[in-house]
């Protein structure tokens, strides 16, 4: 769990962490992910976060995403590289 919070590898995890209020005045205002969550009955292909993800492209929407190993004990279901995801976290 610590690794998920300190080194998130999926844009959805980063969006969730960015939505958490911090107890630091003026430093961090919570930011909700853009758009709306898909309805439970929606027939989505590919990544279910793609409609709300700033890194998503047509590949994310077109295919089922396999689990990828980012390191020995961390799996992610995302086509974006670790560098792209890190940039999203820092941005």
Describe the protein's architecture and organization.
With 91 residues, this protein is an alpha+beta fold. It has 4 helices and 2 strands, in the order αααββα. It is globular and about 40 Å long. The model has no long low-confidence stretch (mean pLDDT 80).
**Secondary-structure class:** alpha+beta
What is the H/E order?
HHHEEH
Average of the residue pLDDT scores: 80
Question: How is the main sheet built?
Answer: 2 strands, antiparallel
Strand order of the largest sheet: 1-2
Shape: globular
Helix fraction, binned, reads 25-40%
Which descriptors would you attach to this protein?
30% helix; 91 residues; globular; single chain; two-stranded antiparallel sheet
List the helices and strands and how they pair.
Blueprint: H1 2-6, H2 11-18, H3 58-62, E1 68-71, E2 74-76, H4 82-90
Short description:
By secondary structure, this protein is an alpha+beta fold. Helices cover 30% and strands 8% of the residues. The chain has helices at 2-6, 11-18, 58-62, 82-90; strands at residues 68-71, 74-76.
């Amino acid at each position: 769990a610590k690794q998920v919070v300190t080194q998130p590898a999926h844009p959805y995890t980063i969006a969730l962490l960015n939505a958490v209020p911090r107890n630091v005045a003026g430093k961090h205002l919570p930011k909700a992910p853009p758009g709306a969550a898909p309805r439970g009955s929606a027939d989505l292909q590919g990544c279910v976060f793609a409609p709300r993800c700033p890194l998503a492209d047509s590949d994310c929407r077109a295919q089922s995403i396999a689990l990828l190993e980012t390191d020995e004990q961390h799996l992610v279901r995302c086509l974006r590289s670790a560098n792209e995801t890190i940039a999203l976290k820092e941005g």
